[in-house]
Amino acid sequence: MYDPLKSTSxxxxxxxxxxxxxxxxxxIGIPREKDETERRLALTPETVALLVSSGxxxxxxxxxxxxxxxxxxxxxxxxxxxxxxxxxxFQADLILKIMPPTEEEVAMMRPRTTVFSFL
Length: 119
Prior knowledge:
Blueprint: E1 27-30, H1 45-53, E2 57-61, H2 72-77, E3 81-83, H3 86-89, E4 94-96, H4 103-108, E5 114-116
Parallel strand pairs: 1-2, 1-4, 2-3, 4-5
């Protein structure tokens, strides 16, 4: 009986090779929105899981997901690291926000931090 998976057959089999791990990891920060009327957040737990599985670190300020009905636990289970203070989140390489950063938030950022937000 013909078996295409036998080593003596001419069936082409591709093998997956491990790639090198990245030399650095981009850290993404998601701070809590300060505007009381804002009901959006830059990332959902589902997108956090996708980013973490791709090798990114995601820092989320504690309580940031509450206005959109997502608990810190849900974000943590998706791979986010929950930070107690905004200052810790603003140390990330990339900040994702809905509202533009305030002067106080800009003062907490490291030099050369990238911010994605509405104007």
